[in-house]
Design a protein that fits this description.
By secondary structure, this protein is of the alpha+beta class. The chain contains 16 helices and 16 strands. The chain is 56% helix and 17% strand. The strands form three sheets. The chain has a six-stranded antiparallel sheet with strand order 8-7-6-11-10-9, sandwiched between helices. The chain has a five-stranded antiparallel sheet with strand order 2-1-5-4-3, with helices on both faces. The protein has a five-stranded mixed sheet with strand order 12-13-14-16-15.
Length: 668
């Protein structure tokens, strides 16, 4: 498409106007010169003709005048005026009086020296030679007049004064209107021919200008416009070995240099971008490795890895899902930048469901430049919340798929091969880091379990040692004391206060011996297993009830049955339960006891309720010598628990114990 050029600025217009004006001047001046030359030639020819006629007539007139034949003179003058060649002929004397004329009306008339037709001769003071000039008559006719003097020769002096040089003047007038009209016609014809020639030459010049110059300038312009847009592959056609061809070759050489320079710059920029991407990728991988080395906590590794991956991939938000082997589902474990109302919707996914589930099921990464362009049934929640670009990368380690990292943005995006490689590398490294953290968590859990078992065995061994020592020492002494008191009571014949005191001492010994047996039995009772804490407590309550003829009712919900605590807490709880059951047997005189285990809000609630005679806890607290309840409260406070006692005389007693539950390690 040719650009519009203002009329005044057009090269065509300026060249054509310049050439036309020059041709007009040249041809106009040529025509004018030709006209002038032709006119001068015509006048010279007329002058020569008129001079020749004048001289011939002069000789004829001279003979006639010598013979004094006036009739012959008049006949000569009239014969000259016959036809269109000579308009008039007349002879003037030396005084300027017309003596002989072809026209009778002009006879005896005079022509003064001041007449414009006479001034040329009188002004030059040359009256002896023929002269010619052109003038216009009063009626507008153009006339060529030749004036030939009649000299006073020797033959004439017999009649004329010898002092006069000229006897008279022969005047011959020739009409020149027809000749001038012919010249003007020739001039007009020449001007028309010149005009046609100018037009033809202008058109030829315009066509040649378009073909030789302007068309090639359009090629230059098109190429330069492409150069301005950064397209240096354009070339100007070289059609001739002229100046324009040389210019085209120079422009093409310049374009080739610019093209090579642009390719070099593009290569440098591409290399710089590649280095920048590789540097960013290495930086992201380094940050993931650094964060993984700083902490082996799974949540810390997930948060740091997700944030680094999101920043490295230049995505707005993302989540990490980990696989739950038991249910084959994906659970949300970390999120960055996602809308808060999106997380509850996408908290749990099934393998094979949506983009993330498909990636985990196939263990292959997948990206979507625009989720709206995919099948309508996939990625429903993501589309609902306006996500467009998305990338899902499996987290793999040791041949297993641990989960998936899901990155997304609200704008569409084209994922390059470098982007995919970076995401895959991040997924692999983050998968290894997560696997290490999970292994560390599992190992830590196993270490804790082993520690609990070691502590459990140590406590059992210590309890068994104490039970043996009490059985071999304190219990044997009480048994011997009981035997001696029985023998003394049987051998004694006394009555009264001594006998009563002896019976009372025997009763005290019997009660002490029974308590020692119960204490030995409690020490010999196995401590609850770490994996079955509530079950062990329930078994102890039922065994205690059978031993002391109590009706026991034990209730535990499903969450409580799977509760575990630290070993030291479990020991303190067991001691509180044992002390409570001992109080039920010794002081409450109850026939029925109900024990409930319930877990709620991270707390294990234990409630022991009996139907015994009851007591006032406030009154007991004000008296001295009762340490059992205070010790129970101290045991509960030692592990952060709470102990509440409710009771009234004749109604029964309720013991409520709240135990903080240890944090359960999450399953992988």
């Amino acid at each position: 498409m040719k650009a519009a050029v203002p009329f005044r600025s057009s090269v065509r217009v300026r060249v054509v106007l310049g050439v036309t004006i020059l041709l007009i001047l040249i041809l106009g001046l040529g025509a004018q010169f030709q006209y002038t030359v032709h006119r001068e030639t015509m006048l010279a020819n007329l002058e020569a003709t008129s001079t020749w006629i004048g001289e011939s007539v002069e000789r004829t007139l001279t003979r006639a005048m010598l013979s004094r034949d006036r009739a012959q003179l008049e006949q000569v003058a009239q014969d000259l005026a016959v036809g269109d060649t000579i308009r008039n002929a007349m002879i003037l004397n030396h005084k300027g009086v017309v003596r002989i004329a072809a026209r009778s009306a002009e006879l005896d008339s005079s022509i003064p020296a001041t007449d414009p037709t006479c001034l040329n001769c009188h002004r030059s003071n040359d009256r002896t030679s023929s002269q010619s000039f052109v003038f216009t008559t009063p009626d507008g006719a153009r006339v060529f007049r030749n004036v030939t003097p009649i000299l006073n020769r020797a033959a004439c002096q017999s009649c004329h004064d010898t002092a006069e040089r000229v006897n008279g003047i022969l005047v011959i007038d020739l009409p020149i209107e027809a000749l001038e009209a012919h010249l003007r016609a020739d001039l007009e014809q020449n001007l028309v021919i010149a005009a046609v020639t100018i037009v033809l030459i202008a058109m030829i010049i315009l066509l040649l200008l378009d073909h030789i110059v302007l068309a090639k300038l359009d090629d230059f312009r098109a190429a330069l416009l492409r150069y301005a847009r950064g397209d240096f592959a354009a070339r100007v056609p070289v059609t001739a070995r002229d100046e324009i061809g040389n210019l085209a070759r120079a422009v093409n050489h310049m374009a080739q240099g610019l093209e090579e320079k642009e390719k070099l710059e593009q290569e440098v920029q591409r290399t710089a971008r590649q280095l920048e991407r590789e540097s960013a990728s290495l930086g992201a991988l380094y940050r993931v490795a650094l964060e993984s080395s700083r902490s082996l906590n799974v949540d810390d590794v997930l948060r740091a890895g997700l944030e680094n991956a999101r920043a490295a991939a230049a995505m707005a938000s993302g989540e990490i899902y980990l696989t739950e082997p038991a249910t084959h589902t994906l659970r949300l474990r970390a999120a960055v930048g996602a809308p808060s109302d999106f997380l509850p919707v996408a908290e749990l996914l099934c393998q094979g469901e949506c983009l993330c589930g498909t990636v985990v099921a196939q263990a292959k990464p997948s990206v979507a430049n625009d989720l709206r362009l995919g099948p309508s049934g996939t990625c429903g929640p993501c589309r609902l919340f306006g996500f467009r670009a998305a990338a899902a990368i499996p987290l793999c380690a040791r041949g297993r798929t641990l989960g998936v990292i899901f990155l997304h943005d609200t704008s569409p995006r084209e994922f390059s091969a470098d982007d995919r490689a970076l995401l895959n590398a991040l997924g692999d490294q983050l998968g290894v880091a997560i696997d290490n953290a999970l292994l560390y968590t599992e190992m830590e859990s196993r270490v804790q379990a082993l520690s609990r078992q070691v502590q459990h065995l140590a406590v059992l061994e210590e309890r068994d040692r104490l039970a043996r020592e009490m059985h071999d020492g304190f219990a044997q002494t009480l048994a011997l004391l009981h035997l001696k008191l029985s023998v003394a009571q049987a051998a004694s014949r006394t009555t009264g206060e001594f006998a009563n005191a002896l019976a009372e001492v025997r009763g005290i010994v019997d009660q002490t011996f029974e308590e020692a047996r119960q204490l030995i039995g409690d020490l010999r009772t196995p401590l609850p297993q770490p994996t079955n804490f509530v079950g062990s407590l329930s078994e102890y309550v039922n065994t205690f009830a059978l031993r002391y003829n109590l009706q026991a009712e034990v209730c535990a919900d499903a969450d409580a049955m799977h509760t575990c605590c630290s070993p030291d807490v479990e020991i303190q709880v067991m001691r509180i339960v044992q002390e409570t059951m001992a109080n039920v047997r010794k002081h409450a005189r109850a026939a029925h006891v109900r024990v409930e285990f319930a877990r709620q809000n991270g707390t294990l609630n234990i409630q022991i309720q009996d139907d015994g005679q009851g007591f006032d806890p406030a009154a007991i607290a004000r008296t001295t010598g009762h340490f059992g309840l205070a010790i129970m409260r101290e045991r509960a406070a030692s592990f952060g628990g709470e102990l509440h006692i409710r009771g009234e005389p004749g109604v029964g007693t309720t013991i409520q114990l709240r135990v903080p539950v240890a944090q359960q390690p999450r399953e992988r």
